[in-house]
Amino acid sequence: MHKLGRGHRDKVQQFMAITGASEKVALQALKASDWHLEGAFDIFYSQPQVKAVPDSRHLEELYNRYKDPYVDMILADGISLLCNDLQVDPQDIVMLVVSWHMKAATMCEFSKQEFIGGLQSLGVDSLEKFRERIQFMRSELKDEQKFREIYNFAFGWAKEKGQKSLALDTAIGMWQLLFAEKHWPLVDHWCQFLQARHNKAIPRDTWSQLLEFARTVDPALSNYDAEGAWPYLIDEFVEYLIENGIVQKSS
After folding, report:
1. How far apart are CA 240 and CA 244, in angstroms?
2. Containing domain of residue 37, as a range?
3. Which terminus in the chain has less CB density within 10 A, N or C?
4. Residue 188 pLDDT more than 60?
5. Rg (CA), the chain
6. Across-strand partners of 110?
7. Given pLDDT bands bounded at 50, 70 and 90, which one contains residue 70?
8. β-pair partners for 77
C-alpha cells in the first residue's frame, strides 16, 4: 500500500474498517469502482462469496432480544432498543433503508420472517456486523436506482394498514426525510402547498410521480411541460409556485 497516494490509502483503510475485508479485497473493489467508496461497497456486498453465511442460532438470539414479550413480532419498543444498540436515532433515514432490506410491510414493526430474512440478505448475524453495515446502507441512498426503490417502498411501508392512500402528515414527514437526501429545493414549498390547498391523503400515483418531477424538472421550471402527463396535484403546485412569485413564469 506504500505506493498509493494518501487519499487512496485512506479509502483502503476506511473500506477495510467498515467491511472487515482484507487489504487485497479492498484494493480490488476500490480499483474496480474507480476509487469511489460507495461503488466499492456495492461491488463488495453484491458478491455472494464475500458474505459470511449468517449463523441461524445468532439470528434467533438477535430476534429474541428485540421481540415483543406478548406477540411474536418486533414492535416499537424492540425497534427503539435496536436503534439504541446500533447507535442510530430512530428518526434516521437509515432505518428506512434497514426496513427496505427487511421488506417490512409496516412502519415500526418487523415480523420474524422479515427481520431474519433481512439480516440474512445483508450477511449479518451479530450486532457488530449490523453496525458495520450501517454506512453501506447510507451509501445506497446515493445510488439513483436504489433511492427510487427505497422511495417507492416507503409509500406502502408508511401508510396505515388497509388504507390505499398515505395520510398527509405522514407523507409530508416522509418527503422531508427523503428529499433531505436528494436536496430538492422545492420540497418545503411542496409541503406548504399541500397543507394550504390540498389537506387530503396522498395517492400512490402522486407519490411516485413527484420523485420523477423532482428528478427531471428544473427547480426554476424552465423545462416544465404543462401538457405532460403529471398528476393534477403537481400541475396545481406549479400554478401555486407561479402565483406566489416563487418561480417566474417562463415566456
Report:
1. 6
2. 6-46
3. C
4. yes
5. 21
6. 74
7. very high
8. none
CB 84 within 8 A of CB 78: no
Helix, strand, coil fractions of the chain, as percent rounded to 5: 65, 0, 35
Grid cell locating 209:
410521480
**1 in a domain, yes or no?**
no
Percent of the chain residues topping a pLDDT of 70:
94
Per-position DSSP letters for 188-249, written without gaps between them: HHHHHHIIIII-SPBPHHHHHHHHHHHHHS-TT-TT--TTS---HHHHHHHHHHHHTTSSPP
Kindly list the distances between the CA atom of residue 139 and the CA atoms of 39, 76, 98, in Å, as whole numbers in the listed order.
Answer: 9, 26, 12
What CA–CA distance (Å, rounded) separates 168 from 199?
7
CA distance 121 to 220: 41
pTM of the model: 0.79
**Same domain (yes/no): 104, 126:** yes
Q: What is the CATH number of the domain that holds 60?
A: 1.10.238.10
| Helix 94-101, helix 144-158: angle, nearest 10 | 80
Q: Let me know whether 94 and 42 are in one domain.
A: no
Does residue 150 fall inside a structural domain? no
